[in-house]
Amino acid sequence: MSDSNSEPSRTELDNLGEFKLIEHLASQFTQKQQSTLLGIGDDAAVLIPDANCNLLVTSDMLLEGVHFDLSYTPLKHLGYKAIAVNISDIAAMNGICTQVTVNIGLSNRFSLEAIDALYEGIQMACSHYQCDLVGGDTTSSVTGLIISVTALGYVGNDRLVKRSGAKHNDLICVSGDLGAAYLGLQVLEREKQVFLANSEMQPQLDQYEYIVSRQLKAEARTDVVTWFHEQGIVPTAMIDVSDGLASDLLHICKQSVVGARVYEDRLPIEAATKDAALEFNLNPGTVTLHGGEDYELLFTVDQKHHQSIENQQGISVIGHITDTGQGAELVTASEEIVPLEAQGWRHF
Amino acid sequence: MSDSNSEPSRTELDNLGEFKLIEHLASQFTQKQQSTLLGIGDDAAVLIPDANCNLLVTSDMLLEGVHFDLSYTPLKHLGYKAIAVNISDIAAMNGICTQVTVNIGLSNRFSLEAIDALYEGIQMACSHYQCDLVGGDTTSSVTGLIISVTALGYVGNDRLVKRSGAKHNDLICVSGDLGAAYLGLQVLEREKQVFLANSEMQPQLDQYEYIVSRQLKAEARTDVVTWFHEQGIVPTAMIDVSDGLASDLLHICKQSVVGARVYEDRLPIEAATKDAALEFNLNPGTVTLHGGEDYELLFTVDQKHHQSIENQQGISVIGHITDTGQGAELVTASEEIVPLEAQGWRHF
User: Fold this and answer.
1) CATH code, domain with B27
2) Which of B177, B191, B174 has the alpha carbon at shortest distance from B279?
3) Residue A264 has what pLDDT?
4) CA distance A298 to A88
5) Within a domain: B345
6) Is B152 in Cβ contact with A348 (below 8 Å)?
7) Does residue A348 lie within any of the structural domains?
């Protein structure tokens, strides 16, 4: 589970200081957006706003020991994920991210090489999603690693999608497949415990490649946003699946003041996820409903788009919006109707 | 040094959960900016960008044990400061802040009442500076309190001020007075040590009211930005004094590729600051040069504005910009010329 057997070179942050560190990190980023007039290096970044669009802003923080465990999360993956999850929030408004800022808190147990790995991931994400890193703060932390990211983006005024627009009879759809990221985490946690019990045991991850990669390599579904644009489809409501399908669908129901009916046998799950669920004595249906961090897009659309959606690989129609009075329901594989409930988020 | 002698009521965060907490906090904020279409409660905030201006973005993070000590920092003041320091960065570009996002990491040692105090300060700052809280993240922290703020603002295209525009013969000016926040911190630290040694000793802060308030009640000099606007003055370069005058002036020199000559006897210092400096066996000149966190505006202007600046109370002309070759120099009170040096920031 450790970094490497060979001794990597180690440059102490103490020998560098904050300003040199920022210069070093900033030098690795090139600007891709014409709207970025001035990036890192002044009191604030200077951008040209897109007058024809709505400006979107979102911010998320990842904390060591709460959101990630560095014993099995490579820093490069973590940097990538910190950007991707914010871009996913912009995508959930049907928007495209243009700029991000990144605040990092780190202690001197991190070497310059470790920070470089983290920023390599950040840089890869910025490059993949074509957004600019335009600012942030690098500070010492007396405890764990802290990554706080803010993303800015735009969406055409007539294409903005909120959580609150779902209407009776709209189709409920989700991109990709669900539950894999959650099971990937279970595998990583199990292998960590095995390693802690006996440090000669090397992690056995080969057969779990798909689910582990879904946990460690989060991607924002900006391709789905692009596809909506190409097809002239504007969903009526949308959210990204971060807390779990049930919890996130309930947000749409609450904010749209509607009910929902979802069919368990239509919930998209990969064979590898199902196998792992059974291995962990978990009901695959439960995992697809409540496993978080898939960062797929959950959305509702008018029935008129049924054909386009059906023809599109990688998008599943999982149910439809109902009257408010009906609440949110799940039709199980055995055709029972049960209320859909959120698994509470209780980190405190 | 403790909060109060009476037992305050305490509501555990565990009993609330994240969504309820966010609802509770969001309900206390009213929107002031017409450009805020949608604030807290969706995947991202939705704003109408100001097409005639440059968009400014800045982000800063405050960490317990590094940037603040809760044994003498009231949570309300801390919340206020977290917003003010970001607005100060927007002001340093000659801009006005319109929206902020706030990410908070907190452990269950904080009660709902404590979080309310923190957000009361955030709300007071948003109200004072007329900006909207439009989003953010509230998450558990396994260690200390973390506050990460991003501020958005605007500046007219022809009024943008960067660090890089200072020219030979420009006046170097600073608002307000310097060194007080640093000495306020020294007093608070000393009283904390006295209290730790003997908990029956109550802190003696009365005579240090000014310098302590400069440390605990940070304000952004948005009034100076408004004054520039009214006077038709556009500084050639500007930065806010967060790391200390010397360090921040050197940023201007480096980014403008110029030198500077600053006169020690022109550095603005309050009598209370000078008294405290002498009490701590510190040279008052050193304190004005290197004490950080005053959040005053350090700027350079063309000589043609000399009269307006001279007539304006609370702005001091402290020197002028010179050729690059000359470097940055301090003319001491005894008329010696010495190089101006930054006190390195070495938190790691």
Assistant:
1) 3.30.1330.10
2) B191
3) 95
4) 11
5) no
6) no
7) no
First to last CA, chain B: 28
Q: Would you call B347 and A140 a contact, using CB atoms and an 8 Å cutoff?
A: yes
Tokens 């989060």 correspond to what residue?
A: A218
Residue A282 maps to which CATH number? 3.90.650.10
Across A308-317, B108-117, B199-208, B335-344, which has the greatest mean pLDDT?
A308-317
- Among A121, A156, A191, the domain-final residue is A156
Interface check for A105 against chain B (CB to CB < 8 A): the answer is yes
pLDDT higher than threshold 50 for residue A345:
no
Q: Which amino acid is located at A245 in the chain? A: L
Q: Which residue of A has its CA nearest to B18?
A: A345
Q: Do B139 and A38 lie within an 8 Å CB cutoff?
A: no
Judged by a CB distance cut-off of 8 A, whether residue B152 touches chain A is yes
By the CB < 8 Å criterion, does B50 face chain A? Answer: yes
CA dihedral A215, A217, A220, A223 (to 10 degrees): -120
Which tokens sit at B248? 């921040």
> Are residues B151 and B63 part of one domain?
yes
Does residue A1 form part of some domain? no
Please answer yes or no on whether B57 and A137 come within 8 Å at the CB atom: no
Mean pLDDT, chain A, rounded, equals: 91
Q: Output the pTM of the full model.
A: 0.93
Q: How far is A201 from chain B (nearest CA, A)?
A: 29
Question: How many separate domains does chain A show?
Answer: 2
What tens digit of pLDDT does each residue of A112-169 get? Answer: 889 999 999 999 999 999 999 999 888 888 878 999 999 999 999 999 999 999 999 9
CA distance A36 to A57: 16
Q: Does A304 touch chain B (CB under 8 A)?
A: no
Distance from CA of A294 to the nearest CA of B (A): 15
Domain that holds residue B91: 13-156
* Spatial distance between the Cα atoms of B54 and A46, rounded to a whole number of angstroms: 6
Secondary structure of A221-244 as H, E, C letters: CHHHHHHHHHHCCCCCEEEECCCC
Model confidence over A261-297: pLDDT tens digits?
999 999 999 999 999 999 999 999 999 999 999 999 9
B345 by Cβ neighbours in 10 Å (0-12 / 13-18 / 19+) ranks as: middle
Encode burial over B277-315: b for 16+ CB neighbours within 10 A, e otherwise. Answer: beeeebebbbbbbbbbbbbbbbbbbeeebeeebeebeeb
Same-domain status, A209 and A240: yes
Is the CB of B140 less than 8 angstroms away from the CB of A66?
A: yes
Q: A19 contacts in B (CB within 8 Å)?
A: 345
Instruction: Return the residue of B nearest to A88 by Cα.
Output: B43
Locate tokens 């965060």: which residue? B13
B59 interface with A at CB cutoff 8 Å? yes
Q: What is the b/e burial string over B1-33, where b = at least 16 CB atoms within 10 angstroms of the residue's CB? A: eeeeeeeeeeeebeebebbebbeebeeebebeb
Banded model confidence at residue B166, pLDDT cuts 50, 70, 90: very high
Residue B295 near residue B218, CB atoms below 8 Å: yes
Instruction: Tell how far CA B10 is from the center of its chain.
Output: 31
Q: Please state whether beta strands A132-140 and A96-106 pair in parallel, antiparallel, or not at all (unpaired).
A: parallel
| One-letter amino acid of B75 | L
Residue that terminates a domain, selected from B156, B184, B214: B156
